[in-house]
Every structure is written in C-alpha cells, then in structure tokens.
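Before any further analysis, we paired sequence with structure tokens, yielding the entry below:
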Amino acid sequence: MDGAALTLDIGLTQSVATNADSVLVRRAAAGDTAAFEQLYRSHVGRVHGVILRLLGMDRARAEELTQEAFVRAWQKLGSYRHESAFSTWLHRLGVNTALMELRGRRDEQAMDDDALQAAAGGEVPFCAGERADLERAVSNLPPRARAVLVLHDVEGWKHEEISLELGMAVGSSKAQLHRARGLLRRALGGEI
C-alpha cells in the first residue's frame, strides 16, 4: 500500500470511528448505558494512558481518576456539542481531571509553581526495557515540566493551549519543555 492509499485508509477509518462515536454519544445521552459502555471500551486505554503519565505513573490513582473522568463524561454528555470528535472532547476531560488532581496536590503540599504535572511515553519504538527507563525518567521530572512535556510532546498540544490550561505564560511553557527535555537527556545518558 503506498503512502497516499495509507493516508486515505487511515482517514476513512478515523471518519468511520468518529461517526460511530457520534451515534453512540447520541444514544448514551438519551440514557442508553450499553452505548456508553461501548464508548468506554473504545476510549478507556487512551484516557487512562494520559492520566497515568500526567500523574507520574501512579497506577492506583490513575485508575481512580480514569473512572472519575468517565463518570464526568456520562454526566456531561448533554453538553457535548459535536463540534469536535468525541475522542478529543473525552481526552480533554481526562487531562483536565488529572490536572485538577495535580493542582490539588500542589495546594495541599504548598508546592512551588515549578512543580505541577506528569510523564511521557506514547507509542515510542523502544524495547520494553528502554520504554520502562523512559517512563521512569519522565515520572521523575518536576511535575510542571512533566505536564508540559506530556501535553506538548505526547498529546500534541500547542504552547498556547498549555499556557491557558496550566495558567502560565507561553514563554514559560516553552522553557518548561526545554527544561524537561534536558533533564530527560541527562537521566537517559544523553540518548534522546
């Protein structure tokens, strides 16, 4: 399959998934729990993954917050306006759930502004040991630098979006990303 055909195939697959989600969302918003269960099964992996990384690989808390994100999604289905893909809306809700947790931790622990969020990973073509090393290194980053790294490099957010979400200047977001990448390079022995 050539590049153009692959791009077309991926685009069609995403379009079909978006349409299927749209139908399921409408059914779920009308009270169909089986439709919501299908949405949950389709999206739980990605939502859990970003929450896990943002929390610095705290698996137990990530499980709890993933469930919380889906409870919120169920409660807010009526407010979903179908202007973006459901997966985008749900993913953002998951990120916001994790960020609220991190802000709460910061407030509880009186952490300084340089310590807010979480880890990277994505589908990096590493062997299992290298991936574990990378995830461990990311989870050890200062929380704020970790959050910017995950949101920018893993989730694909723009610095403007990150700055709004984390309440920092765009320049601070860029600086935190630079800092996170440098700390990762050092932690991994300059391999990145």
